[in-house]
Amino acid sequence: xxxxxxxxxxxxxxxxxxxxxxxxxxxxxxxxxxxxxxxxxxxxxxxxxxxxxxxxxxxxxxxxxxxxxxxxxxxxxxxxxxxxxxxxxxxxxxxxxxxxxxxx
Length: 104
Prior knowledge:
- This protein is of the alpha+beta class.
- It is built from 3 helices and 3 strands, in the order ααβββα.
- The chain has a 3-stranded antiparallel sheet.
- α1 (2-38) runs antiparallel to α2.
């Protein structure tokens, strides 16, 4: 009886670690995308770069508000080994960067 409980707790902890890692990747992707667009890279190139950094299947969007760029990354984290898929296991991040022309 103890072994199945320990296995369930271990799987849950590994899944929480995966969610935390995915959140960090989403933050990095948003930051990388916003920085790339702000320094003058093409938006589609910057979004592609963000999608490479973001968790698999994440959506990366960019909004240019004149003097600043906002990048938003939204994704889902599936359960360990695909055993279960919780709807609340979503990660998201937003980053804002001033455009190079506006900061000079």
